[in-house]
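Table S5 (text form). Sequence records supplied for joint modeling of the two-component complex.
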Amino acid sequence: AQSVTQLDSHVSVSEGTPVLLRCNYSSSYSPSLFWYVQHPNKGLQLLLKYTSAATLVKGINGFEAEFKKSETSFHLTKPSAHMSDAAEYFCVVSEGSNDMRFGAGTRLTVKP
Amino acid sequence: EAGVTQSPTHLIKTRGQQATLRCSPISGHTSVYWYQQALGLGLQFLLWYDEGEERNRGNFPPRFSGRQFPNYSSELNVNALELEDSALYLCASSDGTGYYEQYFGPGTRLTVT
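The corresponding structure-token record, covering 225 residues in total, follows.
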């Protein structure tokens, strides 16, 4: 069965500096991978998805993620953090059977 | 296009009571998923409904149940409420095709006192 590990429970950056949120996955098949963001007391919003097309995936709000099969990673990056990026981020893996496995989440703090 | 909607936004119940949470999926989506997000426990899968049938359930006791209506909206019922049921309950929908990405509603905050 598939699984996902988010390597950092909390990441803190200064506004204007790059963001890196790390995610490793395990899957027996060619998985679909997603990043979701959750602002306080809100639902989850889909940031981007990898679906076996281009390995570099661009999402909303300037985020992107690169699928690296050899490293079984799907790290989320953004060149320049904004205060509004402060939220909880979830990496998700799916083997296409409506069975999505969520990571434990990474809380991103952005300092002014 | 309207997103996933959930009602009520907040729900306060006492231990032993029953709670009913409602979810309307995105138009055209036939699958509805329920998740529990309790403090410190992450996102836990509860139930999956598709075309009116329960397709899968997570590791939760039978007092967590639900149903999906012909218009694909869904209801989650929690009987005999316990204090540890206090959580944010999230509903998501998908169209059951392609890569199955799920779209989430804003959630219902259930507080059990």
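Note: The interface with chain A takes residues 4, 6, 31, 42-43, 45, 48, 50, 55-56, 88, 90, 92, 94, 96, 98-107, 109 of chain B (CB under 8 Å).
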